Amino acid sequence: TSGSTGLPKGVAIAHRNVLALIDWSNRVYSTDDLQGVLASTSICFDLSVWELFVTLSSGGSIVLARNALELPELADRDRVRLINTVPSAIAALQRSGQIPPSVRIINLAGEPLKQALVDSLYQQPGLVHVYDLYGPSEDTTYSTYTRREAGGQANIGRAISHTQSYILSPDLQPVPVGSAGELYLAGAGVTRGYLARPGLTAEKFVPNPFSSDGGRLYRSGDLTRYRADGVIEYIGRIDHQVKIRGFRIELGEIEARLVQQASVREAFVMAHDGENGQQLVAYIVPSDAAMA
């Protein structure tokens, strides 16, 4: 399914879509990496496609759990080498000191990954890699990835193999490097569309003007930009825009700027109705806990 709020939309994922995901995964993860993958995601959500099909088809093994937070209670917790989950779940495990020392790789997806969390995870004994994986169900779980570095800068990396990424304007024209635009995805991961929702499928899956074989683009609804080195930075949702005094403002862009300050660990920006109309209000979590 796609969508965490409102009415979930069934996404029709074909076998060939999953095969493309498996092929990319086999280029990044060794068989040893996939021995002891925590399979904790509900089969209603697309992260489970990676945990189950990629792991088992590649000769790996899984450790089953009802959810990631159950990890400390598992009899086989010390067999877990790879955790594939969302940042909020791994943050809860990390805060409570419940990530087993056997864990070598952590895949994080589904939510923006804050640099502060990356830095704290690399202090975990034995941990080698933290991967930031971005992708909607409509493009079969993962579309871009990057290995995040301690002390680095937040980004979602580059398109995985068999996937093409385009950052476009509303009229489907490529935007300049450094400029914000909507992320569109193409390639072998693009699914058939929404189950029994032809109108919505036609709206979100559009003809690919950069393809000569009749391919389609998936409109992600996510605001992104290319860095000069070709790496993609995630800014926020297109619908996370506000208009104040005639200016269209990206709240995610302001949040991204705030967390670049050494004294700010996390930030949230919203539009607030004041006496003189809407104004921007920022809430921050300071890097120095003593200031909180």
Description:
There is one protein chain. With 292 residues, this protein is of the alpha/beta class. The chain folds into 3 domains: 15-159, ANL, N-terminal domain (Rossmann fold), CATH 3.40.50.12780; 163-234, Luciferase, Domain 3 (Luciferase, domain 3); 245-291, ANL, C-terminal domain (GMP Synthetase, Chain A, domain 3, 2-Layer Sandwich). The protein is built from 6 helices and 16 strands. The strands form 4 sheets. The protein has a 7-stranded mixed sheet with strand order 2-1-3-4-5-6-7, sandwiched between helices. Strands 8, 9, 10, 11 and 12 form a 5-stranded antiparallel sheet that branches. Helix 1 (15-28) crosses helix 2. It starts with 14 loop residues before the first helix and ends in a 6-residue tail after the last strand. The mean pLDDT is 92.
List the helices and strands and how they pair.
Elements (H helix, E strand, L loop, with lengths): L14 H14 L6 E5 L7 H11 L3 E4 L17 E4 L1 H9 L9 E4 L6 H7 L7 E6 L9 E5 L9 E2 L3 E6 L12 E7 L10 H7 E3 L8 E11 L5 E6 L3 E4 L2 E4 H8 L5 E11 L2 E10 L6
Parallel strand pairs: 1-2, 1-3, 3-4, 4-5
Antiparallel strand pairs: 5-6, 6-7, 8-9, 9-11, 10-11, 11-12, 13-14, 15-16
Helix pairs in contact: 1-2
